[in-house]
Amino acid sequence: MKNFSTIATRFAAAALVAFVVAGPVQAAANCAFKPNAPDQHLVVKGDTLWDISGKFLEHAWCWPQVWGINKDQIKNPHWIYPGQIVYFDRKNGRLSLNKPGSGNGGDGITRLSPQIRTEATGRDAIQSIPSGAIEPFLSQPLIVEADELAGAPRIVAAQEEGRVYLAKGEKAYVRGDLKDGKNFQVFRPGAPLTDPASGKVIAYEAVYLGTMVLSRAATPGVDVSTFVVSNTVQEMGIGDLLVPAPPTAIRNYVPHSPERTIDARVMSIYSGVTFAGRSQIVSVNKGALDGLDIGSVLQLYHFGKMVDDPGSKGMLGNKQKIRLPDEQIGDLFIFRTFKNVSYGLIMEATVPVEAGDVAKSPE
């Protein structure tokens, strides 16, 4: 299933659309309902579609498959609001906002009474995932890959001679290929991201400094373009780099398996800590070129360690090394992709996640 997005809705609310599907909804082999799933769930403020799904399904990320979400329906979603009840229709193997046996739709089709809300009222709808944790990561560059770093435009001078740092509203001169862009973010290269598998640096975390807007592009005989600083969050100045500002559309996240088999490794944990748990951000060493897209779900595993076999001896009398299996520890939701790197939100974790752990396609 591909990832689809709604346009300009800040609240990324959940879409429930399988209620209009005739007949039972058959879950995939790894998307079964829990044997002890409840008959119903009262939606309360703070619920997410992921959390509600986890009460009924063995794997919470499976809800698009179970509820039959498709491209056209995502564009015209049915919101779910606190105070509504989600029912488990055991006979037909599906979820519904209508109580089983209520007689709504005698032809076998479960029809919603008008549930489609305008964007203004949709602000109270529940979200598909806890988007507050990832919003800062949607608007900042965060990751800059090696080829982008080498060719990024850079600030070479300020309007006021001798000025080192720039403030909001001040002019700055930038040299480099703007690629017809007008709105840019300013950053400074941060810590390198090393691929745990190859040991090579494949990208850099970017320190976000603020934004600049093009005032006048370079003309023949002039080597620089003129910019105006529109916002600063940290000191920016001579030598800092620019990257085009990303689109501002907020997506209605639809979890799905990657289209290609992914076998990735966790490279870093955001904020520099050693271990991470639920609702924390990690980077992995696979990106859009590897088949990851927004909404991809990966399963997290502790990487199988090499240990001594206590009952064996090698040729030199040393104990033989054996590799233990990878142990599953949680789920990772990919919410932003770059060419070779992606950021993911840890949705579930039974034990702390650390750099070097495995993140691969659901089995």
Explain how this protein is built.
The chain has 363 residues and is mainly β. The protein folds into three domains: 18-130, no CATH class; 140-244, no CATH class; 263-360, Elongation Factor Tu (Ef-tu), domain 3, CATH 2.40.30. The protein contains five helices and 22 strands. The strands form six sheets. Strands 4, 5, 7, 8, 9, 10 and 12 form a seven-stranded antiparallel beta sheet that branches. Strands 13-15-20-19-16-22 form a six-stranded antiparallel β-barrel. It has a three-stranded antiparallel beta sheet with strand order 1-2-3, covered by helices on one side. A hairpin with a 6-residue loop joins β8 (183-194) and β9 (201-216). The radius of gyration is 25 Å and the shape is flat. The relative contact order is 0.15. Mean pLDDT is 79; it is low at 1-29, 70-77 and 105-121.
TL;DR?
With 363 residues, the chain is mainly β.
Strand content: 25-35%
Domain tally: 3
Average of per-residue pLDDT values: 79
The SS-based structural class is mainly beta
Task: List its traits.
363 residues, mainly beta, Elongation Factor Tu (Ef-tu), domain 3, 3 domains, 5 helices, 22 strands, 7% helix, flat, disordered N terminus
Helix and strand topology:
Blueprint (H helix, E strand, L loop, with lengths): L39 E3 L6 H8 L6 H4 L4 H5 L9 E5 L4 E3 L38 H4 L4 E3 H6 L2 E5 L6 E2 L4 E5 L7 E12 L6 E16 L8 E8 L3 E2 L3 E4 L18 E7 L5 E2 L4 E4 L12 E6 L3 E3 L12 E3 L3 E11 L4 E8 L3 E2 L3 E3 L3
Antiparallel strand pairs: 1-2, 2-3, 4-9, 5-7, 6-11, 7-10, 8-9, 8-12, 9-10, 13-15, 13-22, 14-21, 15-20, 16-19, 16-22, 17-18, 19-20
